[in-house]
Amino acid sequence: MVAAPASLDKLCINSIRMLAVDAVNKSKSGHPGLPMGCAPMGYTLWDKFLNHNPKNPKWFNRDRFVLSAGHGCMLLYALLHLTGYESVTIEDIKQFRQWGARTPGHPETFETPGVEVTAGPLGAGISNAVGLAIAESHLAAKFNKPDFSLVDHFTYVIMGDGCNQEGVASEACSLAGHLKLGKLIALYDDNHITIDGKTDVSFTEDVLKRYESYGWHVQHVSDGNTDVDAIAKAIQQAKEVTDKPSIIKITTTIGYGSPNKSDTAGVHGAPLGEEEAELTRQALGWSYGPFEVPQEAYDQLRQAIDKGAKSEAVWNELLESYRSKYPDESIEFERMLRGELPSNWDQSLPSYTPEDKGLATRKHSQICLGALGPNLPELIGGSADLTHSNYTDIQGETGSFQAESPEKRYLHFGVREHAMAAILNGIAYHGSGLIPYGGTFLVFADYMRGSMRLSALSELGVIYVLTHDSIGVGEDGPTHQPIETIPSLRAMPNMLVFRPGDGNETSGAYKLAIQNRTRPSALCLSRQGMPNQENSSIEKVSFGGYVLEDCEGTPELILIGTGSELYLCVDAAKELTKQGRKVRVVSMPCVELFEEQSSSYKEEVLPSDVRKRIVVEAAETFGWHKYIGLDGDSITMSGFGASAPGGTCMEKFGFTLENVLNTANNLLT
Amino acid sequence: MVAAPASLDKLCINSIRMLAVDAVNKSKSGHPGLPMGCAPMGYTLWDKFLNHNPKNPKWFNRDRFVLSAGHGCMLLYALLHLTGYESVTIEDIKQFRQWGARTPGHPETFETPGVEVTAGPLGAGISNAVGLAIAESHLAAKFNKPDFSLVDHFTYVIMGDGCNQEGVASEACSLAGHLKLGKLIALYDDNHITIDGKTDVSFTEDVLKRYESYGWHVQHVSDGNTDVDAIAKAIQQAKEVTDKPSIIKITTTIGYGSPNKSDTAGVHGAPLGEEEAELTRQALGWSYGPFEVPQEAYDQLRQAIDKGAKSEAVWNELLESYRSKYPDESIEFERMLRGELPSNWDQSLPSYTPEDKGLATRKHSQICLGALGPNLPELIGGSADLTHSNYTDIQGETGSFQAESPEKRYLHFGVREHAMAAILNGIAYHGSGLIPYGGTFLVFADYMRGSMRLSALSELGVIYVLTHDSIGVGEDGPTHQPIETIPSLRAMPNMLVFRPGDGNETSGAYKLAIQNRTRPSALCLSRQGMPNQENSSIEKVSFGGYVLEDCEGTPELILIGTGSELYLCVDAAKELTKQGRKVRVVSMPCVELFEEQSSSYKEEVLPSDVRKRIVVEAAETFGWHKYIGLDGDSITMSGFGASAPGGTCMEKFGFTLENVLNTANNLLT
């Protein structure tokens, strides 16, 4: 590869800047400021360092690049285009932010090959990057051999002031420092501007000192607008520091080149306009028309195509000889990369009969993890400092992923729920077959909801192990008792929310969560025990809802139950049957999957003309009227819980056989 | 006040420790480790520094004390009891964590007078404390005079490793440093233990260096188990540093005194058990029985009663002379303290007719803030760096709350949504009549949901200004387009969720949000414009839902609309009426308030026997079946949005007159 002379550097950098200016102007919407300011660091990184193959964006061993400041996506689109990715043609750039375009307003993995993470909500990208670096480090420890660096790439990030203000980034970067993720390199666009104006209205901390406190290697490039050499030198140095993540603060001018708008909040998120674009052209000495890229810039940047092809070819050769020298490892490695589950992965998932001791579903969950662990080496996860409450450990395994033991797959996230979710997303984004899971109390889903939403949006099969799922939490009281949490997760598109009602349903929920690699799952699990049901099964969970107990003929009443309240429905049905009533019990461990069944199946389970229906769930009623309609009733929660033993809470809030019977009899008369 | 000799210090400290041990043992549930480790700092702070009046927990000028590590609540209950608060008797302590007790498993303001903030979710308390300190600083700047320090108190916090790992605390403490909140003093319980074990499994950053990077004054007390003098000296020094918040890292041993469990995760959240309690008694040289407090300890600590009475009396005298010297200010000050709104507060809220230009409701919101501002001096708020998008400024006012201008009431929170919400809660907890509001994009409610939940639980009248409330966001795409956000907020108990459909409804929403001082409000506001309705009004919003347009006689179809889709219902009704159909339009700006109306009113608006109902709202359907039942239909969202101009999104996702008409006709045939 030929190094570019300074003038060519400038040409390339200005190509990025002007593509951003033109695209935002044409779409009359977007963020030109960041791409204009970050063009030099973007160019330097992509042209001189990034190991990638534009013709195969999914090549496994590529360096990962994350634009954490996702609003500046025209920087990324310009780089993808200029280095030869087919996913972003000049036409795509002209369609910036339009319906159906591959150049949406924030980068989205599912729209544009070459985009590594869906960014937009600030702080998410850098936190995902920590997950990418963890995945790399873990897989390297697992598969590399003294003579084979099969897994060996850097994770680069461009982040802004916004990312550095977000708590999720603080959490993730503190953990990254603890884990000494030496191949994580962040370029911090220090441009002094946020939407509200100068950063000095709210953000005057010493960012590098903070990163130092986390254990990062820190550097500062004072002229990020023109000093390509200084940027390159800093990146090189960061690469050489292998025992710490690195941050390079690069001071830039937002909207660099725009005579009247640079260094103002005005250029952050609004088009320059035709006139200012023209003045910018003049200021940058840019003689090309809108969307015109000088051939020399293409020629320079598209050396990435050859270089990338060669890199991949060399790696493919390496893999080839790894195959012969380490056949077992290579079979597993390649299976994971294909995203295939091992044939026997679910063989040890336990099933239960009513004779088996009734356990808490969090305990069943622990048994499932223990059963899956040995057969599913790609399972990796942990807890946000609640291991012994969430039971997220893989029984039989010891040790955790640490700087000294990256081959281990248990992650201690610390008390950092939001970072946990973002890191799990990052592990999933890595695309190497790893199946990430993470645990906390269900109520703290609220702390990580921003990243759970991104799991759902970006189609990442992350598994959230959310224990202590109701007022059954007991003494910890209302701050720890989820009420609205389950409905709020059910409202989220593409999120599978499981609330299993016994051991079989827990095994079934795990089976589905593992199988669903493009949908995240939220497993809502009890603190307290419950009996195993006669007619539950692993398989039935896949229908989302099913008839657990039935009467002869058409029921006059349907009881719908989930989780720790399912047994109440069963007990009530038995009692009502004795009273001569015709009662059906429907178990509904996953509303989303039930919704996806055929109309005829749904009609079979919940016949339209049986309108007397009662749902029993120790959570907010919200959402259940879809099944109980205007004529049914509910035994649910309508306010917050209280601090008392869990059994007392259940009783005081009406989750008793007596109350189910009374409610049923009221509805039936 | 008499200083205690060292032996008496020890007696008091061990009284705290053993109350915690006994209470947790008796309840068989709870967290003894923190109270045992933090007893020396708790005692030192409360006995030697805290300015409070146990007989009047609401005395305005008291120092605020926040136990951010809320699980250690027995520390707080012990201190409240030992210093003479009537809210925590020895009987209350014996009822620790039981149904109906004033000693719940985490401290809750609404259960126990003397508890300043509801803590439990880690990171919340310290972030609330930043809000308390902001409130103090603002009110001091507003009401104090050279000769009158009417508002003059410290805000003290005890926080643990968990709080220091949570991102919300990072955000809030960075802002606190920026704002130079000199009267905020945090004691950091550095005990090396979290639930997963030693902190070195996940948390090895240099915490004090981080706080230094934020601009805090930092100190370290290396023996927090016994060195009361060192703790006292450090607190004294922190008080003297008035231009920076202070953190004192106090190294302690969790469960100090327990021979076999101290310094282990086992003592964090589980009872010691009878045997270990006995061994602890021996180790501490404690000869008293369970729940027995030596009289000398009471005598020492209950000096707080006299001292507090005197402090309040002195302050009352100060207020008395302030009244005569500054009558206008004192009238305002005391009105605010009583929580009374000024008589004219809502007089300038605008109303509209269809002739008025249709605006975005975020624009109407800005007009409301501008109308309320001059009449409502207690209104204080800002935006998480989206001022010019949320329109959260109070028009006509300049400048913002900064270290140099604490009298200003506009807050630049930076890109820190979660801290914003926690700080708004803190301002509300201050109990001084301030009405806090804060803005961000609706979709980022997910980032602050943990604290929004605490607003709702703790009955804080915080106003959330949440703009860009649907796919109408447009080009920013699905990461920025709320879909499930509105339903997820509606699912939250005690949260008023407003989605106004025009100017009148926006004014009405503000009126109700201001009036509701014990319920938070989420105002969901559009980016894009919509017409003003003929029959909307400020008053009607108080019903939550009302008949906006009606037909003669019983309707055959009811269209239910909210926000930017309301006009579609009105237009469709007109068209359907032309076609001879009998159609009613119900506007539903606040589901929660509608639910609170009488059954007869609800029946009037939505007659049970009119089952053909269609809801039109550009959000997830989840929750609407309560009104459309099993026989209605909906024009809502079932998946994520897309990046394209807002109008295009609306059209592509079916929010068109044509689609409403088709859906109506399908239902009617």
UniProtKB/TrEMBL annotation, chains A, B:
Any matching Pfam family: Transketolase_C_1
Q: Which UniProt keywords apply?
A: Calcium, Magnesium, Metal-binding, Thiamine pyrophosphate, Transferase
InterPro entries, per database record: THDP-binding, Transketo_C/PFOR_II, Transketolase-like_C_2, Transketolase-like_Pyr-bd, Transketolase_bac-like, Transketolase_BS, Transketolase_CS, Transketolase_fam
Q: Which CDD domains match?
A: TPP_PYR_DXS_TK_like (cd07033), TPP_TK (cd02012)
What residue ranges carry the coiled-coil annotation? none
- Please give the PROSITE patterns that the UniProt record associates with this protein: TRANSKETOLASE_1 (PS00801), TRANSKETOLASE_2 (PS00802)
Q: How is the cofactor bound?
A: Binds 1 thiamine pyrophosphate per subunit. During the reaction, the substrate forms a covalent intermediate with the cofactor. Binds 1 Mg(2+) ion per subunit. Can also utilize other divalent metal cations, such as Ca(2+), Mn(2+) and Co(2+).
Start and end residues of each Transketolase-like pyrimidine-binding domain:
359-533
- What's an example GO cellular component term for this entry? cytosol
Q: Which GO terms describe its molecular function?
A: metal ion binding; transketolase activity
**Annotated binding of thiamine diphosphate, by residue:** 71, 120-122, 162, 191, 268, 444
* Alphabetical GO biological process terms: pentose-phosphate shunt
Q: PANTHER family per the record?
A: TRANSKETOLASE (PTHR43522), TRANSKETOLASE 1-RELATED (PTHR43522:SF2)
What family is it from?
Answer: Belongs to the transketolase family.
Q: How does it assemble?
A: Homodimer.
Q: What does this protein do?
A: Catalyzes the transfer of a two-carbon ketol group from a ketose donor to an aldose acceptor, via a covalent intermediate with the cofactor thiamine pyrophosphate.
Instruction: Report the protein name in the record.
Output: Transketolase
Q: Which organism is it from?
A: Prochlorococcus marinus (strain MIT 9211)
Gene designation per UniProt: tktA
